[in-house]
Each structure stands twice: as structure tokens, then as C-alpha cells.
Write a structure and sequence with these properties.
The structure holds two protein chains of two kinds. By secondary structure, chain A is an all-alpha fold. Chain A has 16 helices and no strands. In chain A, helix 12 packs antiparallel against helix 14 and helix 14 runs antiparallel to helix 15. Chain A is globular and about 65 Å long. The relative contact order of chain A is 0.11. Chain B folds into two domains: 90 residues, Helix Hairpins, CATH 1.10.287; 108 residues, Cupredoxins -  blue copper proteins (Immunoglobulin-like, Sandwich). Chain B has a six-stranded mixed sheet with strand order 1-9-6-2-3-4. A five-stranded mixed sheet of chain B has the order 5-11-10-7-8, with helices on one face. Chain B is built from four helices and eleven strands. Classes of the chains: A mainly alpha, B alpha+beta. At the A-B interface, helix 4, helix 8, helix 9, helix 10 and helix 11 of A face helix 2, helix 3, strand 8 and strand 10 of B.
Chain lengths: 537, 217
Amino acid sequence: MQEVVATPYFRASFREWLFTTDHKKIAILYAMTSLLFFSVAGIMGMVIRLELSQPGIQYVTPDQYNYLLTGHGAVMLLWWAIAFWGAFSNFLIPILIGARDVAFPRLNQLSYWFFFSASVLVLITLIPSQHIKMMWTGYPPFSLHYNAGPTGLYVLIVLLIAGSTLGGGVNFITTVLRMRAKGITLGNTNLMIHGLMSSIVVQLVGVPAFVGAVVMLFLDKYIGTGFFNPAAGGDPVLYQHLFWFYSHPAVYVMILPAFGVFSEVLSTFSQKPIFGRAAMIWAIWAIALLGFMVWAHHMFTSGMPHWVRMFMSFTTVLIAVPTGVKIFNWVATLHKGAIRFPTPMLFTLGGIFMFLIGGLTGIPLALPAFDVNVHDSAFVVGHFHYVLGMAMTLGAFSGVYYWYPKVTGRMYPESIGKLSFWLVLIGSNVLYFAMMMVGIDGMPRRYVDYPDINEWELLNQISSVGAVILALGVILTFVAWIKGLSGPVAPRNPWGSQSLEWTIPSPPPPQNFESFPVEVPEGWTPYAYHKRPANSE
Amino acid sequence: MMQMLYVAAAAAAEVIAPIAYPADRWDRIFDIWIALAVVIYLIVAIPIIYFLVRYRYKEGENEIGADEHGNMGLEILWTIIPTIIVIYLAFQGATIYTAQRTAPPDSLVIRADGMMWAWQFDYPNGKSTIGNLTVPVDKPVKLELTSRDVIHSFYVPAAKTMEDAVPGRVTNLWFQFNETGEFISFCREYCGTAHAYMNATINVVTQEEYDEWVKSS
């Protein structure tokens, strides 16, 4: 039965948006805020690439550049790579498990307004006197120095966004544990749920360490404590341990939901169950757990004892194992499939290829013997842009294209989506591969300027051209998403997926499902491509 | 890419000393890694491309995927083999790292103090220079690093080695230049406005020139 529900979003009043506790509207609020800041950080990135195209200082002062770097990093990580998945969690978790909303809708609303407040503070940093220039990592003693800008502002931003995260964490975990439909277990639920859940659990466990680290920064700078001040008996390296204890698992927070998207999309567009589902669930949680044991690989040159470097090297290389398990199972899912290539599938395939390269360049970084030449170089920047700038972003775009008909009730224009994919893929590869090459040749990161040696200028120019192509690709995706809003009406299940969210109308009605409690048949799985129930069209 | 050509040429022409030790150690771990990475990439990428072509949706012929759910044997295989590979890599890396980090016992010890935004070098006889490090060729040099203010880092591109300079502690790195000349060093830990300009020049001279220079004021 095809039911076109008058879209609740565009008819809703401003007041309704302001005070909503509906998880679907809150998801849209997170998505819009996140996309806006993604664009702001993206523009910052473009200015950085502009300045780096030639040796010498042409467009911005070193202090402005250092602000742009800090802003680009902090905003991309917190407002895009983490927050955008908050939009996914909000929209999808209830409808994937057969629930009417999340466990605590008012807490959900409060979480968004914490996030919104943090966003306003970020915009304040655009004012020159409020430029934060400590880089997103904020290492003391520099972050305690006046040259670093208003450290307190950064601390407050982190505290607010942490509040949002912790509220969301409590909410979603309770929802998944308590509100699943009858017949949906943690063993047979969507891999997207595991991707989001593992990410949320890691956030809940890790964010307090980040909060602790920045609070200690605040106390050192404004109250005169000596946590990181050697003259007072403290140690700057302590901050690095506290900071990275969260910030390393944080990168898994950013990629695990993308892994969930890859699994959903691959399965749907191969018309096959995901290969090795139990192994996939095991692997996601193994990555989440191992992710807490490796943080000091960011500190191999920090002066910490030799044995710590060796220990962390061994734990870090082990993460390649569950990650590899996931990649091999995705490849096996394609085996004997019936594969189609609409835009979400292209983005997912691109994401997997890019994650392969990103992961393979991560392995040498796990070895101090290798890291000693490339730590804090453009190679590291290239590596994490492969996994974050590409694999995570391609995964996020794939997810939006995939669930676009469900969320909006419309279809985006397919040809624009496909063109955007190719531009993003080609542009990103040109940009970040050249970056890795110049990094291996010795170019440091966080440099406003570089000497005119070897082929550094050429490689930087190539990177900057890649950035322009990438930017065009991203703009095209935004065009596709906006044009799609007035596109053709989408059927309830345009992709022929067997997953629960495609059994309800597009967009979902306020209560999601027709009646409660929702029940799924015996032996239900979201990947039932060989037990075609009446759901398929 | 330059790396690979250089190393291939070196291998072909027997052992050629690098411009500065321990750069050759890094070249070794790079070679091991790049070979593994290319092989693993192809092992994964080629099947993907093949499957994408071979198992395309074809109306009437291939409309639904096979009823495959998993294979325990495969899971075990592709868990155990990568584990062995990465543990091997970690052990190799550990051996190589020891060589990169252990200064030879006869090293000339020079102190390097980082500050915003320059390096001060103090030689064993009390001589001091700023921004300019003079060392003798063919002799191991151990730099003892610290900082006056914030964290800096001393990176020697020719030797492919670096270590942070942290206030409140003394860290170290070692290198040995095998040819004379002028070489650059970079600061590699963000330290503010002029972080990109905190370069020092390493002047590599003959032992006689060094002995004479270090005695002068």
C-alpha cells in the first residue's frame, strides 16, 4: 500500500520546530546544523589550501592561518564527523527497532540545545579577538599561552558539546536496550544499529576524559593550578595522555556508523544478506574495545618511555585485524550478488576503497620506527583525511542518499548524485595522495609556509587543485539534496530492502508505526532476501 | 616514489650510506611496509572489481543475490593471517626502532634548547649558537633536547628522525651525517605564530674544521 503522508516537516510551524521532542525533527535539526558547520569548516579548508599553494605568505597572516587550522580541525571533527551521526541516530534508531520515539524525548531536545549553544560559541570565534589558535588538540603549555587565544572559550565549547553527547548517549542506549520490537534482538537487528551503538558507547566512556583534560587546562590557565606546568611539578605530557585517551576512540566514533552504512547499503544493492553477520558484530565491538588501548600512538615522539611506545605499537597494529575482517566480509557480500549502482552504492564502494588506503597507511603509523620520520607531517594529515575526509564522509553521504526517500518522501536527482560522487572521489584522491607524498618527503603539518625545496610547491599545488574538484563535488551533492526536495514522490521501498524502516510510509508518520507493540515474524532478519515476505514490491 | 627508486638503486649498487644515519633504518621499514601494502591492496581491490562486474544485476538473469550467509573457515583464515602479519610488522618495527633511537656510545653530545621561535645549541666546551648547528661529518651526534617554554620538536629530514623538546624534561635523538654540507631542520610540534619559521641550519663540516670552529668564540 502506497501512502503519501503530507510531509510533517514543511508544514510544521517555527514554534513547533523550536519546542519539538519528535526524534525525526530533532534529527533534521542536528543534520542542518551539522551541514552548515561542515560548510564553514570546508571553506576554512579551502582558504588553507589557497595559502599553501605557494611558498610565502600571500592571503592570510600566520595568526589567521593558525585560527583557520584550529577551526577547520575542531569543527570538522566535532560538528561533522561526530555530530552528523547524531542526526542518523535520532532518525533511524527508533524506526529500525520498531519504536515510536527515543526513551527520553525531552532529554533528546535538551541535548540538541546544548549542541546549538556550542555552535553559537563557535561562530563567536570568527571575531578576530576571539580566534582560538591552539589547534583542536590544544596541547599545553602552548594552549595556556596568550598566543593561543581564548582557551576558556574552547573549554566552554567542549563542555557544552559534551553535555549534548552524554545526554544523547544515555538516551540511545536505553532506547535500543529497552524499546526493541518483539522479535528483534541484539543478534538479529540491523548492523547500522551496532555501528551507531558502538559509537555511542565509546562516546559515553571516553568523553569524560576529554572533559577532564580541558577542565584541567582551564584551571591551569585561569586559576593557577599546575597540572601541566613543570615549574609547579606538573607535566605537559599528562595532558596528551588524557586528551588522546578520548580522542583516539573518538575516531572510531566517527567511522563505526559509516561501517554500519556500508553494511546496509551493500546488502540492499547486492540483494543478499550481509556475509558473516555474527563476525561483523563481533568485529565492530572489538574495534570499539581495542580503540581504548592504543591512544599513545599519537605520542610516539613525545618523550614518553620506550616501553610505552612499544606496548602501544603492538596494541595499535592489532586493530587492523577486526577492521580487516569487516572489509573481507563486505567483499564476500558482493560475491554472487545482483549488484546495482545507484548513488548510495557508489558512495559506499568509494568509502570502502578509501578506507582500505586509509587503513593501510595507518599501519605504518602504528610503528614508531616509521612514525619517527612522519610524525606531525603532511603524511599523517593525508592518512587521517583518507579515513575521515573520505571514508567517513563518503559513508555519511551514502547514508543520506540511501535514506533520502525515507526521510523526505522524495527522490533526489540520480545523475547529479552520480556526477557528485565522481568529482568527490577524484578530487579527494588527488588532494590527499599528493599530501601523503609531500609528507613522506618531510613537509611538516600546521605550517603556514614552507621553504621552496624539492617538489613541495608542485605537490601542494596538485593538492589544492584536488581540493577545488572536491569542493565542486560536495556542492553538487548539496544541489542534489535540495533539488530532491521538489523531486518525484518516492515509493515506500524504492531500493527493495528487507529492513524494517522500509515497511512504513515515506516520510514516516508522527508515531512511525501503525500500531504498538510492533512485532516481527519468527526468524525475522533485515536481510531476508530469500524469504520474501509481502514487504517487497 | 623517490624513496623506492633510491632504495632500488642502493640495493643494486650494494650498500650506499645514506646522507645521514639513521635514515637507512627508516628506508628499511618503509620498503617492508610498501610491499605489504601494495600486495594487500591488490588482494582486496581486484576481487571487488571482479565481483562488481561479474555479479551485476541483469534483468531476467541475475535479479537476486545468492543465499550465502557466512563461512566459518574463511572468518578464521582472515582473522589469523592478518594477525600474524601485523605482529610480524610490530616486531620488525621494534627492532628497527631500537637502532634509530640508541645513540652510539661515542656520540658527540650537544644540547638543543627550543624556544618560541628558535633553537639554541650548547656544545660540550660551553660554546653556544642560535639557529645554527655545526657538527663534524662521519661522527654520531646525540642531541639532548629540552624547551624553555612550550613543546617544540626537532626534526632532521636527512636523518629521518625527530623527537619532541618538552619543558621540564630532557629528551634525545641521534644522527650521523656522512657528507658535508648545509642541511635544514624543522620544528615539528605546533608552537604558535612562527612555528613554520623555527628552522635551524645544520652545518656539517670536517672534523678539523669542527675542532677549530668550536674553540673559536
